[in-house]
Design brief:
The complex is a heterodimer of chains A (293) and B (200). Chain A is mostly helical. Chain A contains 9 helices and 4 strands; from the N terminus they run βααββαααααααβ. With 200 residues, chain B is an alpha+beta fold. Chain B has a 3-stranded mixed beta sheet with strand order 8-1-9. Chain B has a two-stranded antiparallel ribbon with strand order 2-3. Chain B has one domain: Alpha-Beta Plaits, CATH 3.30.70.20. Chain B is globular and about 45 Å long. Classes of the chains: A mainly alpha (293), B alpha+beta (200).
């Protein structure tokens, strides 16, 4: 007999959502969100300049995230889904994929014009600006998709804001890594301090978010995140490794000198990125629908 | 135009799963997929215990969240109130599955039958209707509705706990049961389902 697992349950009880709950989805949303935020920094801070590798790096990260999303969801057995963009009026997935497509086209064109025709600076700036707007939608659309589901943990207008803040932190973490490794001149903003602030704001927002979960699944969700199988990701991966330690390192790092400074700030950037992944993995895996009665 | 709906009397349901099997026979669904099934819950402590049965299927909501969530417009609501899936448009992204508060949509992964990859003749016959990588859902047995016959789950119920008809026709039995207090589950979801329940 076939050992196929039943889709669903026979019990009247809160039910876990098994759609989008894996590590690959968390990785895809982390890469595309952080990459899009990094692109926004590079484009707006003008830290790269013509021929810089920063723009291709940012675009590459978004593409990698998009590639995972496309491989996981938007194709089935290698067949591309031709109808994907038809429900722009109602579906946040349609809008998100369209934003990804726009971002990809505009950012690549802006980069190519900036590299091969540096005299057309105004055109490059306009295209980059539109690409940054598309990047903004790329960052927040997973939050909008999730917040439109009936899952009480996801169904909050805070979620897109949290995706924005955590992606902004992810972009800054990449910026910090690039800066520490000597890939760019110091940008106009104090990167370690801003990163620490964003990580702290993200944690605060998530705390408020947890307090807002509807009664129907609050106990199960909190139990899963703080005491259940996701505690290693949520408490360990996100709160401690992803927020507390990088915040301390980002505050301490700039006061150090030489190799210690480099090492501490590198670690802060890497841990912040790990934290963003852990947060999204926990968030995606803790979706629970309420019992029917 | 009629708006089809169903009223299920949970006080009558004995949890026999005749509806589950009738649906499977009618739609030839693959292993793991039950478009209609009976949920249950035990409450209380011995000897004061109670078992509640809740038969579920697609609720054919008036404001279906699955239709809104689908990026390829594969799901639509027909004028008769039935929410149906267009297999040619479905891209298997499962947004509808996440959006449905009732878990009424199912993903058809591959053409594996109850006895593995080698399908039995009846499985070959039925699975030809389905397309791997798409969504399967209850359509109130549309084939039967076109012939003027009630859905298979309604006809199979040995205790007649399911009532089917036009919820907008004030003379229909379902409409009168709704007036008498049949109510949808999870009303806070705001989907206005066409399946109502009578609770004891």
């Amino acid at each position: 007999m076939s050992g196929k697992k039943l889709q669903g349950t026979f019990l009247i009880q809160p039910r876990s959502v098994h759609v989008w709950g894996g590590a690959w989805h968390a990785l895809a949303f982390s890469l595309s969100g952080s990459g899009a935020a990094f692109y926004s920094y590079v484009a707006s801070l003008d830290s790269g300049g013509p021929g810089s590798v920063l723009e291709p790096l940012a675009i590459g990260l978004v593409f990698l995230g998009a590639l995972i999303i496309f491989a996981l969801e938007l194709t089935y057995r290698g067949v591309f889904l031709k109808y994907f963009f038809v429900n722009l009026a109602r579906s946040w997935i349609s809008r998100g994929v369209t934003a990804l497509l726009f971002f990809g086209i505009l950012s690549v064109i802006a980069f190519l014009i900036g590299s091969f025709s540096p005299e057309r600076e105004s055109l490059t700036r306009i295209l980059s600006l539109i690409a940054v707007l598309a990047a903004l939608l790329v960052i927040i659309y997973p939050g909008l998709v999730l917040s439109s589901t009936p899952v009480p943990y996801w169904r909050t207008s805070l979620l897109p804001v949290e995706f924005l803040v955590s992606s902004a932190a992810g972009g800054l973490a990449i910026l910090l890594l690039v800066q520490v490794l000597g890939g760019m001149s110091a940008p106009a903003i104090p990167v370690p301090a801003t990163l620490a602030s964003l990580l702290a704001i993200g944690l605060l927002l998530h705390g408020i978010h947890l307090g807002q979960i509807a009664e129907s699944t609050r106990r199960e969700t909190i139990e899963l995140l703080l005491r259940g199988k996701l505690r290693i990701w949520f408490i360990g991966g996100y709160m401690i490794i992803g927020v507390l330690i990088p915040v301390v390192l980002s505050v301490v790092g700039p006061s150090l000198d030489g190799a210690a400074r480099t090492g501490v700030l590198l670690l802060a950037g890497i841990l912040a990125l790990l934290g963003i992944f852990s947060q999204r993995y926990g968030l995606l895996s803790a979706g629970i629908k309420p019992a029917l009665i | 135009m009629a708006r089809f709906g169903m009223v299920i009397d949970t006080g009558r349901c004995v949890g026999c799963d005749a509806c589950t099997l009738a649906c499977k026979m009618q739609n030839g669904t693959p292993p793991g997929v039950l478009l209609s099934r009976v949920l249950e819950k035990e409450e209380g402590t011995y000897p004061q215990v109670k078992r509640t049965y809740l038969p579920i299927l697609c609720f054919h909501c008036d404001a279906p969240p699955c239709v809104r969530a689908c990026p390829s417009n594969a799901l639509s609501k027909r004028p008769d109130g039935v929410v149906e899936v267009d297999k040619d448009r479905c891209c298997g992204v499962k947004a509808c599955m996440a959006a449905c508060p009732y878990d009424a949509l199912h993903f058809y992964e591959d053409q594996e039958g109850y006895f593995g990859k080698n399908l039995t003749p009846i499985e070959r016959y039925y699975y030809a209707r389905h397309r791997p990588g798409t969504i399967l859902k209850c359509d109130f047995c549309s084939e039967r509705l076109m012939r003027g016959v009630s859905p298979a789950c309604v006809e199979a119920c040995p205790v007649s706990c399911r009532y089917f008809g036009d919820v907008e026709d004030p003379t229909s039995q379902v409409s009168q049961l709704v007036k008498k207090g049949a109510r949808p589950v999870l009303p806070e979801a705001g989907t206005n389902p066409s399946v109502y329940y009578l609770f004891k």
